[in-house]
Cation diffusion facilitator CzcD-associated flavoprotein CzcO
Amino acid sequence: MITTDVVIIGTGFSGMGMAIALQKAGISRFLLLEKAKEVGGTWRENTYPGAECDIPSALYSYSFEHNPAWEFKWSEQPQIFDYLKKTAAKHELYEHIHFGQEVRSASFDEATRSWKVETVQGMQIQSRFLVSAVGQLHRPFVPALPGIENFNGPRFHSARWRHDVNLKGKRVAVVGNAASALQFIPQIAPEVGKLTIFQRSANWVMPKFDRPYKPWEQWLSDKVPFVAKLYRFRLWARNEWLVFPMLTGNRLVQAVFRRIHMKYLNRTVTDPELRKKLIPDYPVGAKRVLFSDDYFEALARDNVDVVTERIERIEQDAIVTQDGTSHLVDVLIFGTGFRTNPFLAPMDIRGMGGKSLREHWREGAQAYYGVCTSHFPNFFMMYGPNTNLGHNSIVIMAEAQARFISECIQRMTGAGALVVKPEAEEAYNRELQRRLRRMVWNSLDASWYKDGGRVTNNWAGTTLEYMRRMKRINWRDFEVR
């Protein structure tokens, strides 16, 4: 049995940021559990062609770990992955990480006021504090299409890309057309023989205007820190004050973004029928807004078809849609996103009285500022319920959470356990859901942002508000057990 003060599950942006926050607070007895063989989280797992971030690199990075060597304004997966590995090495995190250890269960022992953590591989750990940093986008979702087991060719999800499958000259079908598909479709379209995209609904797409950084820009970013900070602030402020109002349904901002989408669409797609298919029928921001400089261009290619008829079944070498059309397919790729609910699955986490987190959240996940929930003492979450964003960098949220959690851990110098009061958590979530009902996400009956009728994934305000509210902890909302 290994004993420690803090166990952190996951080594992506959140988990590593949490570990660095503990170091800054003078807490050295911690360990990180990682089911894979390297750090990086989603930037280790997603290696599909064209994988990149949809937030500019200067903002999608730690505020305390500036990187003047970003090659593009919007960096691709290899460089983000490399940034995370270098950050882990610089802050000496590798000596705290146990790789190849996937958490099976964690239970709170009320007698010792500590957590007993067990991994699938058999490791057992006793820790005063437990922090989950597994994120929301790590379990690929593959729809249960009728007849899928009959398909003879290679099939895989974009998050589990098969680099051993040669797509050159093949008839390739892509099911789904959201964030990941928007990035890999332009990469594979020129090499495949035929590309058929099965689209359930259109997405709002904005041009990125991406380009490489010039050498003098990289030099200035490295040698003049004020310039780098000012540039980061400008990116943040644009998202806070120009993009966020779109999510509140502001008519003027909605109109501006619709115009940008239509201008990009009309400039790149001349076929009127295809244009119709690519105009969404819901408010901008109700689903994730996508950014690309080559997506519509790829869809306009002669060897690419966009099919909006629903899939009826899968056959050995074809996809049959409800209109009876049989689309011949050699390779099937799912760009269908991730399973975000239930949160923290498949881990079995149990708090006071043996109550499982799954049971605790049977009406939908909720938490106090997304970081802690009643009946689960000394347990914290990074990127938990209602902390996802539709307008800015999630790394900003993660840093605010890491500071909050490290302060909670610092306060508990004795043997007690800190737990949020049920009434405080309920009051916070009543306010949050009231505000969320006014956001554009509620204009849709179903999306990955929602669990049933409630928005469980997204934060209702700006990052500035979240940082401000997380900076001062209201200790009256907690009790010590």
